[in-house]
Design brief:
This protein is of the alpha/beta class and 244 residues long. The chain has two domains: 6-60, no CATH class; 62-243, P-loop containing nucleotide triphosphate hydrolases (Rossmann fold). 50% of the residues lie in helices and 12% in strands. The chain has twelve helices and six strands. Helix 7 (133-145) crosses helix 9 (174-187). The chain is elongated. The termini are far apart. The mean pLDDT is 91. The structure holds adenosine-5'-triphosphate and magnesium ion. Adenosine-5'-triphosphate (ATP) is lined by residues 67, 71-73, 106-112, 166, 196, 198, 230, 235-236.
Length: 244
């Protein structure tokens, strides 16, 4: 290794040990005590890894837009008595494998809250997937036709939280409903589901065709569920340029 500087040799070791940020940070840490110096470098590496892990989890989850809990106003949402905004933010419902049903009119913040909770879950190291329900059904049908449904269901089984946005916005045929039922069953009492919907339970049969299956789906979803009612005015309308 003649001609190699100490800094270069450290960089080579870091590369082999996959300490990606450590080489960059060597010159940034101003610390005379050797132990403190090493500790600071390692802490910076750990923080970097955490950021990468969270970014990857958020990307993999498939959110359509990024939304935060800090930006969400709870004043027009009716929470069940057992639930406060703080309890939601603590993600206890995921630890307890409970479901959230976010029900209300268009533009009232259902997708925003579902996304923000999903992102908090990613930050907490939970595995999350976000789907628009119509897209999920199309994926399920395609995978089923290609004989790849089992592999997909196994992936669902590894999740902590599955978010089905726009539940019931688009009618689902019998095959689609059956496949969706399999997904709901895979989640039942094992992982949390968040559904956003503007369809009251009594109308679900009109969307899922089959009355028996609809009842079975509702039964599984409602058990261990919190119903959050969004009864405000549409934010899209409130803030639309056309209104000014
Ligand atoms: N309570 C709220 N606090 C902050 N922003 C909000 C709130 N409600 C809605 N918004 C904002 O208004 C817009 C529409 O909200 P969102 O898409 O979540 O509505 P939605 O209930 O999912 O509607 P839809 O049923 O049509 O899907 C978004 O940009 C969202 O960030
Ligand atoms: Mg929405």
């Amino acid at each position: 290794m003649s001609g190699t500087t100490t800094r270069e040799r450290i960089a080579q070791c870091c590369k082999r040990l996959r300490l990606r940020k450590l080489t960059d940070n060597l010159a940034l840490v101003d610390e005379s005590d050797p132990e403190q110096y090493v500790l600071r470098l390692l802490e910076m590496e750990v923080a970097h890894r955490d950021r990468v892990r969270v970014d990857r989890a958020i990307k993999t989850a498939g959110f359509y837009a990024l939304k935060s809990l800090e930006d969400f106003r709870f004043d027009e949402v009716t929470l069940p008595a057992a639930l406060t905004p703080e309890a939601l933010a603590s993600l206890q419902f995921i630890a307890d494998r409970e479901n959230l049903i976010l029900y209300g009119n268009v533009g009232t913040g259902k997708t925003h809250l579902a996304t923000a909770l999903g992102i908090e879950a990613c930050k907490a190291g939970r595995r999350v997937a976000f789907y628009r329900t119509a897209a999920l059904v199309n994926t399920l049908i395609r995978l089923n036709e290609g004989g790849e449904l089992d592999a997909f269901l196994k992936r669902i089984e590894k999740l902590d939280l599955l978010i089905c946005d726009e539940w019931g916005y688009v009618p689902v045929d019998r095959d689609g409903a059956q496949l969706l039922f399999q997904v709901v069953s895979a989640c039942y009492e094992k992982r949390s589901l968040i559904l956003t919907t503007n369809l009251e339970f009594s109308k679900w049969a009109t969307i899922f065709v089959d009355e028996t299956m609809t009842t079975a789906i509702i039964d599984r979803l409602v058990h261990h569920s919190h119903l959050l009612i969004f009864d405000g005015e549409s934010h899209r309308v409130k803030h639309s340029l056309m209104r000014h």
